[in-house]
Amino acid sequence: MNWTEIMNFSRGPLLQVSMMIFIVGMTYRLVRVILLGWERDRVKNKGSKLWGVILNYLKGLLVLPFIPWVRRTFRNNELTFIAGGLFHLSLFLILAFGTAHVLVWKSLCGFGWKSLPTPVLAFFSSVGIISMIVLLINRLTHPVLKLLTKLPVWINWLLVFLPMITGFIMARHLWFRYEVIFSLHLISVSLLLIWIPLSRVSHFLFYFFSKTIHGAQAGKRAVMP
Amino acid sequence: MKTQSAINTYLKETGGWVASQLEACTRCGICAEACHFYQALGNPEYAPIWKLEPLRRAYEQRFTVAGKLKLALGLEKKITDKDLEHWSKIVYEACTVCNKCAHVCPMGIQLGPLIHDVRAGMAAAGVVPGDLAEATEKQKTIGSPLGVTDEMWRERIDWITEEWEAEIPVDKAGAETLVAFSSIELMKFPDNLAAIAKILNKAGENWTVSSTGREVVNFGYFEADEELTKLFMYRVFKAAEELGVKKIIISECGHAYEAFRWTAPNIMKVPRGVEILHISEYIHELWKTGRIKIKEGAFDGQTITFHDSCKIQRRGGIIKQLRELLHVLAPKSFKEMIPNKEQSMCCGGGGGVISIKEADANRYAVFQMKLEQLRDIQAEAVCMVCSNCRLQFVDSLAHFNSTVKVHGLSELVSKALV
């Protein structure tokens, strides 16, 4: 098998199968959690649950990851917090507005949008990669993280990092032949897609549960989330 | 055997609410930075998320593919009796269920309530620190965790009535308001109990205490034993129904307020149309509606600060009202500690921790951080609205030879009444 064949295989059957696994797996996990049942909250509210939820999302998306100093609690690990925030921001920008990704979205949705200028993309993909490395170093050295991090978490890091670094190399046309790096990128993306339903990388889905719960809890008690 | 009853409790408690939050965790460890026990003692096992390990393992191994895979591959083990004993010390002696971690978690996971669930498993398995279990047993059999009998209670109420010249109506038929005090106030802070009585009398409140529903503290709730939690609240609710009151006022106890106000309707039958209020919000209401008047600046002079209690402020939302009161009591001398309000740091004695002798070292270590916060603003006095916090402050300030004075907010208000 030569690289052209590998490329065709990885962007064809491999990607399709891993996307299927991803969708079926995540649906299963979502349904599984929802079916565990939800109890009605009979407690009388003091404040507005909805307002609490709205405030919580706004703060969580716009303020806390980028300005951790608003909470004194973060004075011991501002770097982790900012690295986490920048990583997610970069990931979103590259996935949604990367030149090649826009084409993928267009073929999937039938309509597209403009990609970001190349220098901006280069900047944010570098920021994303650097953040990942900062987070890795933190995970290797922080006593709590050493305790919490078992094998699956290391795999999470690796499988998220591989598509990022291969994508970066491909977009900058560095070192590798196009077929080679494109194949590697797609293989790593496929591996990640298969891994997500089995791991905590799936947190992007359950984020909406816990974030809503926290906002509602704060709102009903009339405290700032 | 022990372990199985803990696991059963965990599985019973794991609905979508618990599961979705356990699934949301990314193992980022940021919650550790919020935990005063971790901050003070540096033990990574005190990270709030690590306290959920027994619950997480029970859930994953029963309900998730990944959990079953990890078990099959030997990456993770089943929970053992030894694990329970290990985590019992962590969740009871190094956690006050203050829930500050939830405010720090980027995912918003409600770590406090989930740690409460972990405790529930420990309670079911009978793996609870001896001192805590003993106090709970006393509350079950005698009616008070401090062992105050009916007779002692009556004598004490009579004594307070005489000593402070504060009339305290007992079992008054036709009263509108039932005030439920805690044994701590009765035995250790009678001045605060008298202060509350004076404020209510001054406002012309038609109130009473009950000889059957006389204990507001809930050691079942500290242990997280749901049956006992219900029993202890039932005693107060039953008294309220018999007296036909319209309001139950929870006196200065944070966990009691949490249990009565935010938990009871979800776990038991509560009397219909009976409002549950914390004494501090009620005092504010009395002042706001002009039923009591407070002398402005009565406590100006020495720098005074306010300690936010986890269950009354961060979890109870009674925040702004009390600042309004404080700005009247000491407009010039009132100074906020940093951090404060929702972000304030727990005193270290809540959640039953102060009743466990073995946790004393933890409790003092945590209090040192509070002491620094007091020093930073050069506070000469501190007031609060939870007698459990107050006990921790009085005990720990003495332990560290500090001269900072401790007051109940009700006590200050009663002294400033005009």
SSE pattern of chain A: HHHHHHHHH
Which architecture name of the largest domain in chain B does CATH use?
Answer: 3-Layer(aba) Sandwich
Number of separate domains of chain B = 3
Largest interface: A-B, 61 and 61 residues
Helix content of chain A: over 70%
Coarse morphology of chain B: globular
Residues in helix, % of chain B: 40-55%
Task: Tell me the distance between the termini of chain B.
Answer: 62 Å
* Average pLDDT, all residues of chain A: 88
Structural class of chain A: mainly alpha
What is the ordering of alpha helices and beta strands of chain B? HHHHHHHHHHHEHHEHHEHEHEHHHEHEH
> Largest sheet of chain B, described in full?
4 strands, parallel
Helix count, DSSP H or I runs of 4 or more residues of chain B: 22
* Distance, first to last CA of chain A: 56 Å
Number of H- or I-type helical stretches of chain A: 9
Low-confidence stretches of chain A: none
- Can you tell me the residue ranges of chain B where pLDDT is under 50 for at least 5 consecutive residues? none
Strand content of chain A: under 5%
Task: Walk me through the structure.
Chain A has helices at 3-35, 49-63, 78-97, 99-109, 118-141, 143-148, 151-171, 178-195, 203-220. Chain A has one domain (44-220). With 225 residues, chain A is mainly α. In chain A, α5 (118-141) packs antiparallel against α7. Helix content of chain A is 74%, strand content 0%. With 418 residues, chain B is mainly α. Chain B folds into 3 domains: 2-127, Fumarate Reductase Iron-sulfur Protein, Chain B, domain 2 (Orthogonal Bundle), CATH 1.10.1060; 133-288, Rossmann fold, CATH 3.40.50; 304-415, Rossmann fold. Helices cover 54% and strands 6% of the residues of chain B. Chain B has helices spanning 2-13, 16-24, 36-41, 48-51, 53-63, 65-72, 81-93, 100-104, 111-125, 130-141, 150-163, 183-187, 190-202, 219-223, 226-243, 254-267, 279-288, 310-314, 320-329, 360-376, 387-399, 409-415; strands spanning 177-180, 207-208, 247-250, 275-278, 304-306, 381-384, 405-408. Chain B has a 4-stranded parallel beta sheet. In chain B, α7 packs across α9 and α13 crosses α22 (409-415). Chain B starts with a helix and ends with a helix. The model of chain B has no long low-confidence stretch (mean pLDDT 93). At the A-B interface, α1, α3, α6, α7 and α9 of A face α2, α6, α8 and α16 of B.
